[in-house]
Amino acid sequence: MQKEPKSEIEELRKVIKYHNDRYYVRDTPEILDSEYDKLFQRLLLLERENPELVTPDSPTQKVGGVPLKTFDAVKHSVPMLSLENAFNDDDLRDFDSRLKKLNNSRIIEYTVEPKMDGLAIELVYEGGKLKVASTRGDGATGENVTDNIKTILTVPMSLHDISGSGSIPRLLEVRGEVYMEKQDFENLNRTRSVENMPAFANPRNAAAGSLRQLDARVTARRRLNMFCYGTGTVSDYGAETYYETMLFLQRLGLRVNRPMIKICSGIDEVIERCHEFENTRNDLPFEIDGAVIKVNSMELQEKFGLKTRSPRWAIAYKFKAVQGMTVIKNIDVQVGRTGALTPVAYLEPVEIGGVTIRRATLHNQEEIDKKDIRIHDTVIIQRAGDVIPEVVESIKSKRTGDEKIFRIPDSCPVCGTEVIKKEGEAVARCPNKKCPAQLNAGLKHFVSKGAMNIDGLGDKIITQLIDKDFVKRGVDIYRLDREKLLQLDKIEEKSAGNLLSAIEASKETTLARFIFALGIRHVGEHVASVLANHFKSIDAVQKAGEEELLSIKEIGPQTAESAVTYFSDDANTAHINDLLNEGIKFEEIESDEESPVAGKTVVITGSITSMKRDELKEFIQRNGGRVSSAVGKSTDILILGENPGSKLEKAKKLRIEIIDEDNFFNRFKLG
Ligand code: IVH
Question: Cα separation of 488 and 464, whole Å?
Fold first, then answer.
């Protein structure tokens, strides 16, 4: 039965108020931001359709939570508002159309900047001295957290006019976001786990929890940061644009995220910038959950004015969720190619950012214990880029008593061999090299994209090939014939033919791929290409001693030992010989002297047009270069694709050579 709008509205208000309290007051949210947004949007819609039901105490008419009793209340001279949300490009275009209507259809200049995932704070400077710092609270009144804020190194105790050109305002109310960097968040949680304290779910909760400490000495030990993004009352100052205001704050010694504030003319550029921020968010040292779009002209800001809860001249573009909440149906153990036993959570399917997630890794027993994750727990799942989704935490308040503690078994779930856990290692391993699970995972790795790259040889076929005893090692794949393939389920003439051609085509490969395909522990794609470039032949790699391996810049003792052990095993040597006898051939490695990237560290930013990013990566590696994902002091070259991200700014600052895609390839033609 359809609910009456009145009762649904009341219900929604109750639920939203409850979650406001968990989020703003207790710093322990029980639902995801995306779910909260859904509830809020639904309430907004119902109230828009039924304006007579809007009441002043509705969460849509107020901002945030109520102040905590334990801190003194501080009244904001100008209310601290919230932002309306845009969830897609259309929402942004609607926002622009609304404003253009108020602006005689004239194009509007906007700024776009990251939406920091922290908490809003107001600093009041009188005569240049920091007098009061407060949280947003309900927008009108917040909590006095001055002592705690004073422990933040990037918040100046007094303003100084860095440029020396102007005077310091008598009164300056400045607003910004206090946040914790990802690295500091991880360090904090690590320490807390040692001290048996519950982990913070994300950097924002950690920042909020750290700031709302009654004892400022605790705050001082947490590494917090602040970026300023706005003002309340300011005496004796008139800026013409938002951007200028930010420059003004910066001149006074306040921290502003200036390089990331982009001026855009019109909404198309805004949308482009928003996508760019979304695509590069993982490269940043701090969490951002969206982009904030503001009208740059102060005159227009004033003209467009405010709504109850938010300014009409700004909007937050929210990124697609990376976290989701669901229930663990069961936990099982998977045996990998090196025998590692990995606990895997089987989930009630949940959609995160457009992808349905059914399984997530729990890493190892230590992680399970530390996070206290049990079967039937309600958990938060996170996916980031291409990596396997992981279970971030369990929501203890949702436990019913039906939860079951999970322990990794003492023997391999596939072959029954007793598992081994080395001192100082978190991972338990099945030591049986003939374990079918290891064979299966090893073969999957052997045929995978970065290795022998055999198209169409999926999981199901591999399992059948092993079950029928057709394949035990990689080389057996090259000995398959039509007759054998036709005995497999779902394989008929045509697919058998395709598979055989794919197998044949894979014989022409590179030395790096081949080394990677062998599945040597600690030898990932990058190390494999380092080895290939250094030794230039499989023979030389096989003969290399530990000392020679260690003399290579990027090879450490673990890898060196693992490689030597692998190549001194007769069965492995025989396998390599068999593979070569089956006709596997390597593309010539270009000689170092001729290659413009030999020994250099290269970073790619923006989208590459002439080939796939992976192909460019391989091209660089084949020519003796290394590809890194972040710009740092050791970066030699930055390749500039279309719509570059923040890496460009960083490379400029570090004076790293920057070259566009075309010119990069031209160097190779000349060489
Ligand atoms: S401007 C009048 N800029 O997002 C609106 N807010 O829901 C002033 N936030 O309360 C906000 N980064 O805590 C602005 N670059 C940024 C921001 C930002 C994060 C937060 C802030 C605000 C909330 C909006």
Answer: 7
Given a cut of 90, whether residue 465 has pLDDT beyond it is yes
By annotation, the residues acting in catalysis are 115
Place of tokens 């420059």: 247
Residue 27 has pLDDT above 60, yes or no: yes
Give, for ligand 1, the residue of 177, 180, 293 to mutate: max count of ligand atoms closer than 8 Å to Cβ.
Answer: 177
**In angstroms, what is the span from residue 81 Cα to ligand 1's centroid?**
8
Pocket test for ligand 1, best of 62, 63, 82 (most atoms within 8 A of CB): 82
What was the pLDDT predicted at 3?
76
Listing DSSP states for 152-195 in one string gives: -TTS-SB---TTSSSPPPSEEEEEEEEE--HHHHHHHHHHHHHT
The confidence score (pLDDT) of residue 671 equals 41
pLDDT of residue 645: 78
Sign of the torsion angle spanned by Cα atoms 161, 166, 172, 174: negative
Question: Ligand 1 centroid to 522 CA: how many Å?
Answer: 44
CB 180 within 8 A of CB 118: yes
pTM of the predicted protein model: 0.60
User: What share of the chain has pLDDT > 90, as a percent?
Assistant: 58
Q: Which atom of ligand 1 is found nearest the CA of 114?
A: 15
**In this predicted model, what pLDDT tens digit does every residue of 593-638 receive, in sequence order?**
567 888 788 999 888 888 888 888 888 887 878 888 888 888 899 9
Average pLDDT, the chain: 89
The tally of CA atoms less than 13 A away on the side-chain side of residue 388 is 12
Residues having CB closer than 6 A to ligand 1 are: 81-83, 113, 115-116, 120, 177, 229-230, 292, 311, 314, 316
What residues are paired with 230 via a beta bridge?
Answer: 175
Ligand 1 centroid to Cα of residue 379, in Å, is: 28
Residue 274 CA to residue 319 CA, distance in Å, equals 9
CA of 204 to the centre of ligand 1 (A): 13
How far is Cα 488 from Cα 500, in angstroms, rounded to an integer? 14
How sure is the predictor about 62, in pLDDT bands with cuts at 50, 70 and 90?
A: low
Angstrom distance (rounded) from CA 88 to CA 131: 40
